Amino acid sequence: MTEIIQVLVLGLLLGGVYALMASGLTLLFGVMRIVNLAHAAFIIVAAYIAFYAFDLFQIDPLISVLITMPVMFVLGLAVYLPLFPRIESSARYTEMTVLMTFGLALVMEGLLGFFFTGIFRSTRPPYATDAILWADLFIPTGQLLATGVSALLLIGLWLFLRYTRTGTAVRATMQNRTSAQIVGVNVRRISAISFGLGMALAGASGSLLSYLFPFFPAQHWRWVALLLALIVLGGLGSLKGAVIGAVSLAVASAFVTNQLGPDWSPMTFYLALFIILLVRPQGLFGKALRI
Amino acid sequence: MTDMASDVTPSVSDDTGGRPGTVSRRVLLLVVLAIVLLLPLAPFAAYNYVLQLATVALMWVALASSWNIIGGYASYISLGHNVFFGIGGYTSGLALVYLGFSPFLTALVAGLVALVFGLFVGLITLRAKGPTFIVATIAMLFVVGLLFDNWELVGASSGMSLPLPPFSVDVVKVPFYYAMAASAVGAIFLSHRVAHSKFGLGLRALSQDETKAEVAGINTRWYKVIAVALSAFFIGTAGATWGYSLSYLRPTIFFTIGVAAQMVLSAIIGGRATVAGPVVGALLIVGINEFAIVQFGATELNIVVTGVILLAVLLFFPLGIVGSLREAGRLPAFLDWD
Questions:
Q1: Which of B128, B268, B318 lies closest to A281 in CB terms?
Q2: Which of A83-87, B27-31, B324-328 has the lowest mean pLDDT?
Q3: Is A42 within 8 Å of A206 (Cβ atoms)?
Q4: What residues does each domain of chain B span?
């Protein structure tokens, strides 16, 4: 029994971070119908920023969230503005975004590999290897803090979307782009802001990832495959779905790791994806996609 | 059906219709085939290098032309098609190591296994459309990669060695060249047959509007599944040949997304949904890669080049070389294979 609770706790602790990583991805799809294959590459970029901030200036990765978020917001705008508005009128827009972000991911992977080599990196803040023992349960401090930060940021995102004018405009654009435009939302501006916001979330994820999982440039494919699988599970574009998908799959994969070893844990995500495709292709919380 | 056909693809014409240039195209086709067949007889300075490069080029022709059947005609972008490449390579590799059959013979079996596997995964992944389908193909790639990474019989992630081919070093590249040429010619022929069949017409129709195609009586689901299966065949045979020519098999050779990237890029830069496009694109990309490696060495920047080319093509001429030229009415006859 204790073992089951233990695995459950470990899964839940990772789930928060997965949810944060996936939130940006699903936001981009929700607002702009962009399937961002480069999302994890951006997360890895942020992880390198956090790594060098820690290595050179001893900035704690939890603090470097304050650096990676604005930096990635700006980088996001710098990527979005020259590329995506150009293809807005393309007949196969979503497909174009996939191919475009595929190209973008290749570019970033190559640049990261060129500048930072393929060596495994990770930041080593003191709490990364600490753990709390509480009533027979082993709770890794680093993961607890990461999930805490993730939860705070997700709550912040929810408050922003719920209670600010810009947030309302973002939600309106998610629901119906054309109608949003009719009622006076500047969808271009909202799209750019949302892209930046998605990248800022990727930035925060990168800071957390930098001490949770050793990383190297080419690893982003594995991450983006996991994240895409879980946002499809939750329903593309649904934030609630992304969070629930992330937490449930993190727990499921913790059990798989416990039973079969860590090699098989990514399998949980892909199998869940295939099962959902067979049972409910639009995802748990998604509307049937019209293309 | 006929109304729909003329509505959707006005450019498709019957290839036996006695169009001007048909005779010269036949001649050209024979010349190209003759060059491909006779290349190994020419005494090159760097014989093995040239033959190896030609083999690689033919491999990408086979891969890109096959991918085009589902990714071009049906416009269902798959980023996991290199799964069939690996399935082919491992099928023939296993047959060689455990049963002693030469991959040159079992390549066809490898193609069939890839085809059957294509049917199977097609039935699952094609439950989804658009972006979800793309995600499903990536997941498929990772699932299969993970299975091979952990499958002890094939040496798991460290891979397995194959016995060396029983040929002298001077001519060892020749059989691989011909085997790859067979895959490439087969893939182009298949692509051409599909483009000119009612089946291909159905694929083009559903790529435009799936609901309308369905209403017109096309069983879109099976059309797509069969398109995936057909596209898997020559990718499988090419994989069988490629694995044997390397004389070892490792998951990272086949199941990395970079392989899919080059397939997709070749087809797109040449022109999706055209017969000649993927061929032109594959040759161009192999040329660019070879140039980059000779000039700058094999660095991470090669991936950057691939990515930048993809972005540039998408932004500035999304129809690809053949597609853009046709759109402008300037497609030279020798590239008009449709």
A1: B128
A2: B27-31
A3: yes
A4: 43-255
